[in-house]
């Protein structure tokens, strides 16, 4: 009888220990690797955020990227990503349908393109909790992101067609030209081609099958530079610029064509009214860009941990 009691007691203690381990067991950590693409929209001097409703303004381009995500808790994950982004802005394209709506911008006639290489680390908050096993994860997960990014960029513009002899001028790096006098005596130093940015976004992730997820994300990047478009301050004195090419790309107000598209501006220039002799190329305020991104994620297999 005593031996039976001892045996039952030991079984009870073992079962209690196993149950306690199950209650205290942490979620199994797992990871995903993803690849995707989407659109990219620039906002700055050449496409002001205050004029967001104007449909031609964004001149959308593209982004492609890869990412690695690690799920840490049921609600929180960390993601590292690399994204290649193209941005474009053009005063002419933005204002050609109604030059007198924003005459100063149309008259300015600046444009740019910029290929950004962005490395970002973001925290992700999932509104529906993950389960202990990836195979039992929710079918649909809305989430929000916040992070920090390092961005390498290099704004370019086309040379005037009259100097290149081609239908369209060659693309030329703008930062070394100091189009606002940067680097010359009495002017600011050249701006950096490396900038910080804060990515903020929301997204939705679908469980496609046991090994794949699909996500759609909309995110906003606030950058700590006003020179994604090479435009920020005043027109410099032409005589202060180091060479003729710097002068040509600094002040393009009287070019008869839009160098980016090759379209004539002559008729629109003649119709302009209320154009002041404005000495500003741009206005203070950092540039931003907006990304949409559709991605496919592969869940990296995780070994199952068996209880002792």
UniProtKB/TrEMBL annotation:
Region annotation Disordered: where it falls in the sequence: 242-261
DUF6089 domain residues: 31-154
InterPro entries: DUF6089 (IPR045743), OMP/PagP_B-barrel (IPR011250)
SUPFAM superfamilies on file: OMPA-like (SSF56925)
Domain of life, source organism: Bacteria
Protein name per the record: DUF6089 domain-containing protein
Species, as recorded: Spirosoma fluviale
């Amino acid at each position: 009888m005593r031996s039976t009691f001892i045996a039952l007691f030991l079984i009870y203690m073992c079962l209690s220990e196993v149950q306690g381990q199950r209650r205290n067991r942490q979620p199994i950590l797992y990871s995903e690797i993803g690849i995707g693409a989407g659109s990219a929209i620039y906002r700055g001097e050449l496409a002001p955020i205050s004029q967001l409703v104007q449909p031609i303004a964004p001149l959308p381009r593209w982004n492609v990227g890869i990412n690695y995500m690690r799920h840490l808790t049921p609600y929180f994950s960390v993601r590292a990503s690399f994204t290649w982004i193209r941005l474009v802005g053009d005063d002419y394209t933005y204002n050609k349908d109604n030059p007198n709506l924003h005459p100063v911008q149309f008259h300015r006639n600046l444009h740019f393109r910029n290929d950004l290489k962005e490395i970002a680390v973001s925290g992700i908050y999932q509104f529906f909790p993950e389960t202990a096993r990836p195979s039992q994860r929710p079918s649909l997960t809305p989430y929000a992101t916040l992070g920090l990014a390092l961005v390498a960029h290099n704004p370019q513009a086309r040379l005037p067609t009259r100097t290149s002899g081609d239908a369209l001028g060659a693309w030329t790096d703008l930062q070394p030209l100091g189009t606002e006098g940067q680097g010359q005596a009495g002017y600011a130093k050249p701006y950096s081609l490396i900038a910080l940015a804060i990515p903020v976004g929301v997204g939705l992730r679908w469980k496609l099958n046991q090994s794949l997820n699909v996500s759609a994300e909309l995110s906003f990047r606030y950058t700590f530079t006003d020179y994604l478009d090479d435009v920020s301050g005043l027109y410099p004195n032409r005589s202060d610029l180091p060479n003729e090419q710097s002068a040509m790309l600094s002040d393009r107000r009287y070019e008869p064509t839009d160098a980016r598209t090759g379209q004539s501006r002559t008729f629109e220039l003649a119709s302009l009214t209320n154009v002041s002799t404005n000495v500003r190329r741009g206005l203070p305020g950092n540039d931003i860009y907006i990304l949409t991104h559709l991605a496919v994620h592969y869940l990296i297999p995780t070994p199952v941990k068996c209880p002792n």
